[in-house]
Design a protein that fits this description.
Helix content: under 10%
Strand content: 35-45%
Number of helices: 6
Largest sheet: 6 strands, mixed
Structural class: mainly beta
């Protein structure tokens, strides 16, 4: 508001000079306290009102009346602004009402041109702009304030013209982030309608409210308008063709003449006098265009790209051209307001092949700067620079980098949402998509997003998924790919391939092509094609109310999905269950999501399941699905198809990151192998597919499909998802297992896209081990062996699983079992379940456990001891498990049974949960001489007052392992391949010595019909007597005790025998059964 000043403080302007001169001479201004004060405040014209100088009362700052723009809402460079937002302008003092109008305040949209609006707040310091129509989704809005705005108090003009920009939000649609391939809709193709399209610009050219596309073609030599009828049916209209538009390359659409409709600016990459290298097309509002042309003075230059805007802050649109040939240039064409352009002003002539260009306020000073990149094809000598505008169209070059390579495209936007302008770029020759982070002081740091974008040619950026951060989109010409890089909010980008079949992908744009409020993708290709990919609204499961599919409040759209609905199931606490039939257009289950359907499933598109999701159907008819299994490392994995009918060649060609092995050409091994236990030699037990059998070429591919419940081994070159596509398994599954000449191990797997229970602890009634061993004795022991790729410090290892742990087998997971003869291994639908995490987790337990571990510095091996009520000292099938012996175990740790040992090497041993002190566990080690091994132990829930010790008979030492950082290290002087040297004790004594141990740690078992092995004797004289159940002595021996002793057995009847051993340390009796 205008201030009321006491007239006695007003001096006429006529005496102002005298006053200021006097103050300058004295250099001080006395105030009421007599202190010196700066005269700088007198130079502020904010204190001039009606040609008078205000002398304020005491303690009031001296101001002069110049109108200054101070801030806006939305702020400069703001993102995610509502489509219906008003624009608020703040000034340092009141604005004269008569100057608040569309002449002095210009609002324009990048896709719609000048935007009509009403204005309020004249006569105050705050002006509100209320656009008459909503902005377009994702549109860049430019607001320009011109010097015609005046101060209410002084009639002084705005101190300087200002421009600021903001970006409009799009609907929060995450369709492009889903694990599906978006559907491409072709707008135009062929040499007539889409030949050689070099650039496109989505814009509402005819002002009818829907998004059209303008395109320029080379060598098609056409300027084309693809008119949208509102239903995304496009009519191709030629605006210009022939020699007048020879070799068009650059394109920009803007309301150049400020008459309310969108005009077109195009550049030509030809040179010479025959063809002008810039042409503009003025729209009369009915899409009848008047042509204006401009020939740059440097006729040997190729005009690559063009941008337009008010670069000199005078209220009209100027043009900037990036040109190249023998050298490179940037030219400014100033508009005098009547579309008369000045002789081009050379901004920079030192650019070798100027190509990528983008205009934005990089330093937030209220004018449009530019960022430019060069593309000289090749040697990391190209540059990127930003050119600082002083507000009048005079530019100063600031180098960002001089070591980039072939920058074909740039796009300026605030990528990290910190309020300053960053930019994205692509480098064609080094296949890189990057972004440059502005620190707020225009110091830019390059951050690579993707270094595998082959032939990266174009880039743009927007918040495509509506989550509040900026995503990046590139067209990669060499690998025919449109790639979307989704930002997680911390500028960590996840690559999503929109398509990899766009031959010679060239340009990309974001635009709301169907008017539904979200951003679609528009693309062109060198194969003469213009297309768009629709961003679709999905009905997402929230589970807000319960688990019932048919409850409307569980769905994001408030309605139950129909046959025309795209459906997304997210990972929620309430997992959806449908008690009847469901019918949808498409269905995607996110990682961790789950769905149970009792009735039939009908879907137009295959169901997509992300890794870790789970689907159970109970009475359905056949439908198609794709399961994406994440393999998080490049180590080996055991896999199994969770679908029916997956072709082996299609699996290999679809998942083209499978590693290659030995051999060459069509005979080279592919990292996809079956396990063959009929082979005696271990290296022959993996049977690999070859390139020739799986490459989809020459008609010689295998006809094999993945057999349900059959396992495979695979290895990738890059950690990615592998996809299985086929039909839903709807029945119980059986697969043959047998004992081969090599061993009894068989590689099987989970045949369902859901989890299956492996053990009684997971499901007491329906589980893999119960069905195949407890109930049917199909297995030699109740154990499954899983491959853990993280074991052995990342080199991988086999982990035994039995009823002692609660285990589920994930979809797509393979595992080994050991057959008891020729059997049919059974997995039933009743074993299926949903789990909350995609890992082989064991339930938390309060039982005592010890995990013993050894390391040789590079490899690690572990063995587990569980103390479980009801187990025995002998072999408890389902609770004791041997180590996997289908591979060599040169470095391995295991234990042996305490009673009735048959020499089994145990990966899991379960023992009674009482009499801990009496149970001394033989520990076996396989390691070569000279190896330094270190023992450590993790103990859980060991009873209070009980301690864990490792005994080494060779060094005659005992080491406590259950204290923090405890370890025992020794270097082997001879190779070890069994038990006899190391023993694990649990004892109540807090300090334990060798003298306290006695001879309780002796094991004996039969290694053959004629040999008895005794393990754990101390050195010294030993006598052995063997008695039958009648008390008769059947064997008597005397020998010198060693860690391992072998005693020959006579020909004895089968039965139970007692063996008495006498040593220098004492006497012990052991039972043995001869079978």
């Amino acid at each position: 508001m205008k201030k009321n000043y006491n007239s006695k403080y007003v001096l006429k302007r006529g005496i102002l000079t005298t006053c200021l001169f006097a103050l300058t001479i004295f250099g001080v201004l006395a105030n009421d306290t007599g202190k010196k004060g700066s005269i700088s405040s007198l130079n502020n014209e904010d204190n001039l009102i009606n040609n008078e100088l205000l002398i304020p009362p005491k303690n009031e700052t001296l101001k002069f009346g110049v109108l200054t723009f101070t801030s806006s809402v939305p702020a400069n460079s703001a993102l995610g602004i509502s489509r219906s937002a008003n624009i608020v302008l703040n000034f340092n003092e009141a604005v004269l009402t008569g100057t608040v109008n569309a002449t002095n305040i210009k609002v324009s949209g990048s896709q719609t041109g000048n935007i009509a609006a009403s204005f309020s707040g004249g006569g105050t310091t705050q002006i509100t702009i209320n656009p008459t129509t909503d902005f377009k989704a994702g549109e860049l809005i430019t607001v320009t304030l011109l010097a015609g705005l005046q101060s209410l108090a002084t009639n002084e003009a705005l101190s300087s013209a200002r421009t600021f920009q903001f970006t409009v939000s799009a609907a929060a649609i995450d369709y492009f982030s889903l694990p599906i391939t978006p559907t491409k809709t072709t707008i135009a193709t062929g040499t007539t309608d889409a030949r050689g399209i070099k650039s496109t610009f989505p814009v509402d050219l005819d002002g009818d409210g829907d998004m059209d596309i303008v395109g320029v073609s080379d060598p098609g030599d056409k300027l084309l308008w693809y008119e949208n009828n509102g239903s995304q049916s496009f009519t191709v209209r030629t605006i210009a063709s022939g020699t007048s538009v020879n070799a068009l390359h650059g394109l920009f659409v803007i309301d150049l003449d400020d008459d309310g409709d969108m005009d077109i600016i195009a550049t030509s990459r030809t040179y010479g006098t025959a063809t002008k290298n810039l042409t503009y097309y003025l729209n009369n509002g009915s899409q009848v265009f008047t042509t204006g042309q401009y020939q740059n003075e440097i006729t040997t230059a190729i005009s690559r790209n063009v941008v337009a805007g008010d670069f000199d802050s005078d209220g009209d649109k100027d043009i900037l051209i990036a040109q190249s040939y023998t050298s490179g240039y940037i030219f400014l064409l100033r508009n005098n307001g009547s579309l008369v352009f000045s002789v081009s002003e050379l901004i920079d002539s030192s650019i070798n092949t100027a190509w990528g260009i983008s205009a934005a306020d990089m330093d937030k000073d209220g004018d449009l700067d530019i960022v430019v990149g060069s593309s000289n094809s090749g040697t990391n000598t190209d540059f990127i620079a930003w050119y600082e505008n002083n507000g009048t169209g005079i530019f100063t070059k600031n180098s960002i980098t001089t070591t980039t390579d072939s920058v074909r495209s740039l796009f300026a936007i605030d990528i990290d949402s910190d309020g300053d302008m960053d930019f994205a770029s692509v480098s064609y020759d080094n296949n890189t998509v990057s972004w440059y982070q502005n620190n707020g002081s225009q110091v830019f740091t390059k951050i690579d997003i993707d270094t595998g974008a082959n032939g990266a040619h174009d880039v743009t950026a927007a918040d495509v998924d509506g989550d509040g951060d900026i995503d990046v989109l590139s067209a990669n010409q060499t690998d025919n790919t449109i790639a979307l890089y989704l930002n997680n909010g911390s500028e960590v980008f996840t690559k999503k391939i929109i398509t990899n079949t766009l031959s010679g992908a060239r340009t990309v744009r974001f635009a709301d092509m169907d008017g539904d409020g979200d951003l679609d993708i528009v693309t062109t290709a060198q194969s003469d094609e213009l297309s768009w990919f629709e961003n679709k609204l999905t009905n997402s499961w929230s589970g807000a109310t319960n688990t019932n599919w048919d409850t409307t409040t569980n769905w994001s759209l408030g309605s139950i999905p129909l046959g025309t609905t795209d459906v997304l199931i997210t990972n929620t606490a309430n997992k959806p269950a449908a008690s009847s039939n469901i019918s949808v257009k498409s269905l995607v289950l996110n990682s961790g999501a789950a769905l149970t359907v009792t009735g039939n499933v009908t879907t137009v598109n295959p169901i997509i399941l992300e890794s870790g999701s789970s689907l159970i159907t109970k009475n359905s008819t056949v439908f198609n699905l794709t399961y994406k299994r994440n393999l998080a490392t490049t180590n080996w994995y055991l896999i199994s198809s969770p679908v029916v009918g997956q072709s082996v060649p299609n699996f290999v060609t679809t998942n083209n990151t499978l590693a290659l092995g030995s051999g060459a050409g069509v005979a080279q091994n592919v990292a996809l192998a079956l396990y063959d236990n009929t082979q005696v030699v271990a290296t022959n037990q993996w049977s690999y597919y070859t390139v020739g059998l799986t490459d989809g070429l020459n008609g010689d591919d295998t006809t094999d499909t993945f057999v349900s419940a059959k396992g495979f081994a695979t290895k990738l070159t890059t950690a990615v998802d592998v996809s299985f596509s086929g039909t839903m398994p709807l029945t119980d599954v059986g697969t043959p297992i047998s004992v081969g000449a090599g061993n009894a191990f068989n590689l099987v797997g989970n045949p369902y896209p859901s989890y299956i229970a492996a053990t009684n602890s997971a499901d007491a009634t329906n589980n893999v081990l119960k069905a195949n061993d407890t109930d049917n004795d199909f297995l030699s022991e109740s154990t499954i062996w899983l491959w853990d790729q993280s074991a052995n410090t990342g080199t991988g290892g086999y982990v035994p699983v039995n009823h002692a742990t609660s285990r589920f087998i994930a979809p797509g997971q393979g595992f080994f079992v050991s057959a008891n003869g020729s059997r049919t291994f059974s997995i039933t639908e009743a074993m299926q379940s949903h789990q909350v995490t995609d890992v082989f987790s064991k339930s938390l337990s309060s039982r005592p456990e010890i995990q013993l571990q050894i390391s040789n510095g590079t490899a690690v091996s572990t063995t587990d001891i569980y103390y479980i009520n009801g187990t025995t000292l002998g072999f408890d099938n389902g609770y004791d498990s041997t180590i996997f012996s289908g591979v060599s175990n040169d470095f391995k740790l295991y234990t042996h049974l305490l009673a009735n040992s048959q020499g089994q090497n145990l990966g899991i041993q379960s023992l009674p949960d009482s009499n801990f002190k009496e149970m001394v566990i033989p520990v076996g080690v396989n390691a070569v001489s000279g190896t330094t091994i270190t023992f450590t132990a993790k103990s859980l829930n060991i009873p209070e007052g009980l301690y864990v010790y490792l005994e080494d008979k060779s060094t005659n030492t005992v080491t406590q392992l259950d204290v923090t950082d405890a370890k025992y290290t020794t270097t082997l002087t001879s190779s070890l391949t069994g038990i006899g040297r190391f023993y694990l004790h649990t004892d109540t004594q807090q300090v334990l010595s060798v003298d306290d141990l006695g001879i309780t740690n002796i094991s004996l078992y039969k290694t053959s019909e004629s040999n008895l092995r005794i393990v754990g004797l101390n050195k010294g004289e030993t006598s052995l007597r063997m008695y039958n159940l009648l008390g008769q002595t059947v064997l008597e021996k005397t020998f010198v005790g060693q860690s391992v002793n072998n005693v020959s057995l006579p020909n004895l009847r089968k039965g139970l025998y007692i063996i008495q051993l006498k040593t220098e340390q004492g006497k012990i009796n052991k039972k043995i059964i001869l079978e």
